[in-house]
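Design a sequence for this backbone.
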C-alpha cells in the first residue's frame, strides 16, 4: 500500500515515515477497539501502542501562550511524537470527520511548538480511520490577509 504522504513536497522523508508509522498504529488501535468509544479510550490505547512500538513521545504535553512574558493560556495536544529530526503533534477525535475548529486547534498547537512540526488529526468515529495532515500554511495566509486588510 502506498503511503499517504509520499507526494507531499513540503514534508521531509523523516516526517513522511513518522506520519506513516503513526497512522499504522492508529489503524491497529481502531481495529482492536472499534468505533464509538470516547476519545480517552483511544488516547490510552495509543499510549500503550506507542510504548510498545518504542516511539519517543509525550502524552498531554502543555504548550503555553505567553503575553509579555506571562502565560495567558495553556494548550494540551494529545501527543507530540519524535523520530530523529521529525516531530508530529497528534490530536485524536472520536468522530468520523473533522470540523474547521479541529484544524484550527492543531494549527494553534503548531504555532506554540518551538521547532518544526507537522500536525496529524486522527478520527476514530468510523469503521475506517480518518486522518488529515495539518500545517501552518493556511494560518499564515489568514494572517497576511488580516495585515493587508
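Sequence:
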Amino acid at each position: 500500500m502506498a503511503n499517504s504522504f509520499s507526494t507531499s513536497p513540503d514534508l521531509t522523508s523523516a516526517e513522511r515515515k513518522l506520519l506513516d508509522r503513526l497512522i499504522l498504529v492508529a489503524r491497529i488501535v481502531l481495529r482492536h477497539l472499534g468505533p464509538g468509544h470516547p476519545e480517552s479510550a483511544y488516547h490510552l490505547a495509543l499510549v500503550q501502542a506507542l510504548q510498545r512500538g518504542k516511539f519517543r513521545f509525550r502524552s498531554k504535553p502543555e504548550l503555553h501562550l505567553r503575553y509579555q512574558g506571562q502565560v495567558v493560556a495553556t494548550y494540551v495536544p494529545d501527543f507530540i511524537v519524535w523520530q530523529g529530526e521529525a516531530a508530529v503533534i497528534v490530536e485524536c477525535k472520536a468522530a468520523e470527520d473533522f470540523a474547521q475548529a479541529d484544524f484550527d486547534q492543531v494549527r494553534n498547537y503548531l504555532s506554540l511548538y518551538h521547532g518544526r512540526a507537522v500536525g496529524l488529526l486522527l478520527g476514530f468515529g468510523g469503521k475506517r480511520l480518518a486522518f488529515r495532515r495539518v500545517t501552518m500554511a493556511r494560518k499564515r495566509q489568514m494572517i497576511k490577509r488580516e495585515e493587508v486588510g
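DSSP finds four helices and seven strands in the chain.
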